[in-house]
Amino acid sequence: METLEIYDMPSWSVVSKLSSSPDSKTFEAINNSSKRKVILKVSSIPTAAELAFIRETMDEAEAEKCLEYMVGEKKREFALQDEFVLDDYIVNLELHDIRKKSEGFGYDLIVRSEMLISLEKLISRKNQDGQGFNMEEIVKLGLDICKALVTLHRKNVMHRDIKPSKIFLDTDGNYKLGDFSTAVRVGKEVADHLLVGSLEYMAPEVLNRGNYDFTVDLYSLGIVLKNLLGEWSTLPAEMQTILWKSTSSKENRFLDA
Question: Is the pLDDT of residue 1 over 70?
Answer without folding.
Answer: no
